[in-house]
Amino acid sequence: MATLTIDVNELPARYAEAVARAQHGDEVIVTATGADPVKIVPVPVTTPKREWVFNMNPGAVIPAPDFDDPLPDEFWLGGSP
After folding, report:
1. What is the dihedral sign for C-alpha 52, 58, 61, 66?
2. E strands within the chain?
3. Which residue of 34, 46, 53, 81 sits 20 to 30 Å from the alpha carbon of 66, by its own alpha carbon?
4. What CA–CA distance (Å, rounded) separates 8 from 27?
5. What domain range is 26 assigned to?
6. What's the predicted TM-score (pTM) here?
7. Minimal CA–CA distance to 79: which of 65, 64, 71?
8. Which comes out higher in pLDDT, residue 30 or 51?
9. The domain spanning residue 19 has which CATH number?
10. pLDDT tens, 7-50?
């Protein structure tokens, strides 16, 4: 792994080079007078898969008491209740 050090004033002209080198695993450091140096690193493309946890928020959804009651005939016939 090589290191590329670029002054912030050179970065616009060498941006494509800096990004390509960072993507290939090289260390890319950007420096500026009077400021801390920064490192350009690639961002992972994949997001971590979240595991579903059963009963994580118990009581968050409470069904109505008549939730599983049969629907009225008006519902099935398209009429008004």
Report:
1. positive
2. 3-7, 27-32, 35-40
3. 53
4. 15
5. 3-40
6. 0.53
7. 71
8. 30
9. 3.40.1620.10
10. 999 999 999 999 999 999 999 999 999 999 999 988 877 777 77
